[in-house]
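User: Predict DUF1416 domain-containing protein's structure from this.
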Amino acid sequence: MCSAPKQGQKLPAGVDVEKETVITGQVTDSSGAPVAGAFVRLLDSTGEFTAEVVASATGDFRFFAAPGTWTVRALSAVGNGDVTVNPDGPGVHEHVVTVAK
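Assistant:
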């Protein structure tokens, strides 16, 4: 099967990825299927809650953050999962969070 590569999320107009750090990605289950409606949390390097969004119908999420060490945690009916991210500067930093029971 032939298809176009995933294009990723569109950023809002005016976002300067040369100056802003964007943590973005998708929540998936263990088979790689998107998980819609997952609660996606951004935790700082000490584990403190910083922000939360609800994953889109295609499992996508996005946070604007500072460079550093972050945990992205997804909570859903399908299961939970997290990933540690270390954006070292401005730009778009994409990650997949796989959830499982």
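Residues 24 and 62 are 4 Å apart (CA to CA).
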